């Protein structure tokens, strides 16, 4: 589990390609190295990856076909920077919201509005079905950053970013058309899917009652 409070950015140093598989190596910030072991989980742009090799501050991770398909990690090139966060520990402060590191979809940056000390970024999810989980003032994970949702339309949504977020993460350097990873708040997803299931069951029972000509249930 992660908190969505990005601990730093890591430079992508090397990419080793294999069929439907990739190993990439990043330089982790010094304060993220103590206690890091093989098998540990580190969030990369919100995607949970497992440490496979440690060589000083150079740390490697494997990315399988599904990870490359669903996330924006396959778009990265050497020299790019990634938002990183170590897995949360018991007693850690949860400054954002609990995140699993499981990316649901990506979203394209479709509008950027800049004013003094503020930035508003609009996103259009690749999978429009995910918009039902995007609620005004709800939570969303964007490239591993826990953010509060601003305005919402049928096909897109925005977030409002303070200077500290822009300085500590990669969002400050994002441009129109770039893709970001999206993780939906699991609590919101569970509530909406439960309500949908209950309503579908109710509708099915009503349809069956009508078909059986049960006037007391019409």
Word description of this protein:
This protein has 218 residues and is of the alpha+beta class. The protein folds into two domains: 8-86, Elongation Factor Tu (Ef-tu), domain 3; 105-184, Elongation Factor Tu (Ef-tu), domain 3. Helices cover 17% and strands 39% of the residues. It is built from three helices and twelve strands, in the order βββββαββββββαβα. The chain has helices at residues 65-70, 163-168, 186-211, and strands spanning 8-18, 21-27, 41-44, 47-55, 58-64, 81-86, 105-115, 118-125, 139-142, 145-152, 157-161, 179-184. The strands form two sheets. It has a six-stranded antiparallel beta barrel with strand order 1-2-5-4-3-6. Strand 1 and strand 2 (21-27) form a beta hairpin. The longest helix is centred in the last third of the chain and has 26 residues, at 186-211. The mean pLDDT is 92.
Show the helix and strand layout.
Elements: E1 8-18, E2 21-27, E3 41-44, E4 47-55, E5 58-64, H1 65-70, E6 81-86, E7 105-115, E8 118-125, E9 139-142, E10 145-152, E11 157-161, H2 163-168, E12 179-184, H3 186-211
Antiparallel strand pairs: 1-2, 1-6, 2-5, 3-4, 3-6, 4-5, 7-8, 7-12, 8-11, 9-10, 9-12, 10-11
